[in-house]
Specification:
- The structure is a single chain.
- With 234 residues, this protein is α/β, with parallel strands linked by helices.
- It has 2 domains: 143 residues, Rossmann fold, CATH 3.40.50; 62 residues, no CATH class.
- Helix content is 25%, strand content 25%.
- The strands form 2 sheets. It has a 6-stranded mixed beta sheet with strand order 5-6-7-3-8-9, with helices on both faces.
- Helix 5 links the parallel strand 6 and strand 7.
- It starts with 21 loop residues before the first strand and ends in a 13-residue tail after the last strand.
């Protein structure tokens, strides 16, 4: 993906007239490591019922933004406000975050998403949903990259989250399961707040109600706000 955002041509932000309850609000957030600015001037509200598609170039800060939203990182400056407590949140990290050598089965990986509320029936249903029933007893390290990604997706989904954060869920999966992920997302969208990071943004953006571009700062992309090149905002 290529393209740059022309910040000089940004129109003035529209007033916020959305009356849905806000879950998380980032105000003037920045994150700096050493002399490197990872993110700056981030202002974002995630509301209940949002489906936010997030894209941007490699190294632009997308995963860092997700970790700030989840509270896994603290900003160097600015504020991350959690507006509602006790919201069930699940996170699908990038597949590279898994320790393939850890001695745990596929079933155990998925069941771990229940946080001590294991149910054989629920785990069986989730194994079927992510098409890993035949691999349930295998160690996670014995699976292919795409199968590991499916196991992590099952772990994220099994708690029936109210908010679901998916960081590159299409990585490693084949075209068949890519379509399956789209189907799962469509099923969840009416009842779940979803934030999805992907380079394969065309289909996702068609389902989402908001589209963000992250490239060290944040740009909102919409039909009335097309100041990014067509490769990033279409």
């Amino acid at each position: 993906m290529t393209g740059t955002v022309n910040l000089l041509k940004q129109p003035a932000p529209l007033p916020d007239t959305d009356l849905r309850p806000s879950l998380i609000r980032l105000k003037d957030v920045a994150l700096v490591r050493g002399q490197r600015v990872i993110l700056s001037d981030i202002n974002l509200t995630i509301r209940r019922g949002d489906f936010v598609a997030v894209t941007g170039p490699n190294g632009g800060g997308k995963t860092t933004l997700m970790r700030l939203i989840l509270g896994l990182l603290k900003p160097t400056s600015g504020v991350v406000e959690r507006k509602q407590k006790n919201v069930r949140v699940s996170y699908l990290p990038q597949k590279s975050s898994i320790d393939s050598g850890y001695p745990i089965s596929v079933r155990e990986v998925i069941a771990s998403g229940r946080a001590g509320k294991d149910s054989d029936d629920l785990v069986d249903k989730m194994l079927e949903k992510v098409e890993l029933t035949d691999h349930a007893s295998k160690p996670i390290g014995a699976l292919s990259g795409g199968q590991q990604q499916r196991a992590l997706l099952g772990r994220a989904l099994i708690s029936n989250p109210e908010m679901l954060v998916l960081d590159e869920p299409l990585s490693y999966v084949d075209k068949h399961f890519e379509q399956r992920i789209y189907d799962i997302i469509r099923e969840l969208a009416p009842t779940t707040t979803i934030i999805l990071v992907s380079h394969e943004i065309t289909t996702v953006a068609a389902i989402a109600n908001r589209h963000l571009i992250v490239d060290r700062t944040l740009t909102v992309c919409s039909s009335a706000h097309h100041f990014a090149k067509i490769a990033l905002c279409d």
